[in-house]
Amino acid sequence: MSSQYLIHHNSTIKEALVKLDISLGKALFIVDDNNRVLASISDGDIRRALIKGHSITELAIDVAHKTFKFIQQNTTKKEELEQFKANKITLIPILNSNMELVKIVDISKIKAMLPLDAVIMAGGKGARLLPLTKQTPKPLLKVGNKPIIEYNTDRLASYGIRNINITVNYLGEQIVDYFKDNNKYQIDFNYIKEDRPLGTIGALKLIKNFNNDYILLMNSDLLTNADFEDIFNNFLLKEGDALVATIPYKVNIPYGVVETKAGYVTNIKEKPSYTYYSNAGIYIFKKECLDFVPKDTFFNATDLIETLLAKNKKIINYPILTYWLDIGKHEDFEKAQEDIKHIKL
Where are the alpha helices (DSSP H) in the chain? Predict the structure, then answer.
């Protein structure tokens, strides 16, 4: 949590001015001993107070706004954020039901605040990318000027997703160490160590607590500018239990196709095109879907999807129509180095 924007309720106006100078003039939030937010105060509030004759030795809370703008934890709507931005309000405290501060968000730097916990699968060996992965885990291989995985954590953070779990195994300590020094979005990282491979979703049973009712699962070796807000809204709109993001793959048949049944021609299609949907390695699940994941067992996300289908659960398909690349082979890695020069992620 960024303490640069916080002052205690016993702080004076002078102390608030000093703190405002450190925070580059942005608003401060006044908290009590229990970390409950009581008021907000800005540089303009103090100027107006001093003009009215207040002294810098008085308490800041006496000239602060008791009716301040805030967001209730896990309840943010896109329209709410847009309204704040339209009113040029950038710093917003996120409060729980007891008015206790959870975090402070600079909404000028994010697109949304999605009520999702993310899980990034980063435990693979990247064998197809040897020798590049001999001493470096694939998620830390650099595309352009930063590691593959950081494109994904940055993008998740830009949608307000700050609870990010990363499953690690092969050279996993390097990933943990990297984010100790590279966490500009103040993401709450949680690392899940797999003692042995548990598939693409088996490790989720090792996570003790999720903060939200929805979980976004994705592979760490993807480069994509997919719109996570649109994906999530589509999931909610269609009232799904799970969602699979896919990549449309069009196949053009260069010949006329004759369709038959029991030896009889039923139709002729001249040079038809067929669209198939490949798994994009991005999923959303309701948290209760994890009840179908066995403990301490190798289990893939696709196994869970098949289980959910057998239980007559509703699975949503979301085709990604923007940029997407799975970096699995050397040619993919080379393509990524070229793509990153002109594609904004």
Answer: 13-22, 43-51, 78-86, 148-158, 172-181, 228-237, 301-310, 330-339
Q: How buried is residue 332: exposed, middle or buried, by Cβ count under 10 Å (0-12/13-18/19+)?
A: middle
Q: Which domains does the chain have, with CATH numbers?
A: 3-109 (3.10.580.10), 116-339 (3.90.550.10)
Give the separation between CA 86 and CA 13, rounded to whole angstroms: 29
The rounded distance, in Å, linking the Cα atoms of 67 and 37 is 11
- Summarised one tens digit per residue, pLDDT across range 260-282 is 999 999 999 999 888 899 999 99
Please give the angle made by the CA atoms of 13, 16 and 18, to the nearest 5 degrees: 115
Token duo for residue 169: 């195994």
* Element (DSSP H or E) covering residue 191: strand 188-193
Q: What is the pLDDT of residues 179-214, one digit of tens each?
A: 999 998 889 999 999 878 888 899 898 898 898 899
Q: How many CB atoms lie within 10 A of CB 260?
A: 9
Q: Which residues have a Cβ under 8 Å from the Cβ of 28 and sit 6 or more positions away?
A: 5, 6, 7, 16, 19, 20, 40, 41, 42, 60
